[in-house]
Amino acid sequence: MAKGNVALGAVFGAIAGVVAGVLTAPKSGKETREDIKVKAEELKTEAAKKKDQAVKKADEVSKDVKNKAADVKSRANDAVQDAKNSFNKK
Questions:
Q1: Torsions phi, psi for 27 (to 5 deg)
Q2: Whole-angstrom Cα distance, residue 66 to residue 81?
Q3: Nearest-10 crossing angle of helices 2-24, 29-89
């Protein structure tokens, strides 16, 4: 989770840097608004890519956890069955 917080902090830092840079640049209001619009679109695209990557990774982790849980369940069932068979032989 710490890596996610660092990435989120980096994104917000980048946004703040872009906004500060654009607002302090010696340009007209129209040019500044256009620059903000362009940067916002770039950041939106980047955020969408990051979201897609996060969703894909979450899906992979979910599948992995489900597979491991099924394996543990199978092993537990086998152990219970072995114990029952061992008990019944006595």
A1: -130, 165
A2: 22
A3: 180
In angstroms, the Cα distances linking 58 to 48, 53, 55, 66, 72 are 15, 9, 5, 12, 21
Domain ranges, ordered by start, for the chain: 2-89
Q: Dump pLDDT digits (tens) for 11-49.
A: 778 888 877 777 777 778 788 788 888 988 998 898 899
Q: Which residues contact 14 (CB under 8 A, 6 or more apart)?
A: 43
Contact present, 39 and 18 (Cβ < 8 Å): yes
Contact by Cβ (8 Å): 55, 41: no
Each residue of 46-76: pLDDT tens digit?
889 989 999 999 999 999 999 999 999 999 9
Half-sphere exposure of 1 (CA within 13 A, CB side): 0
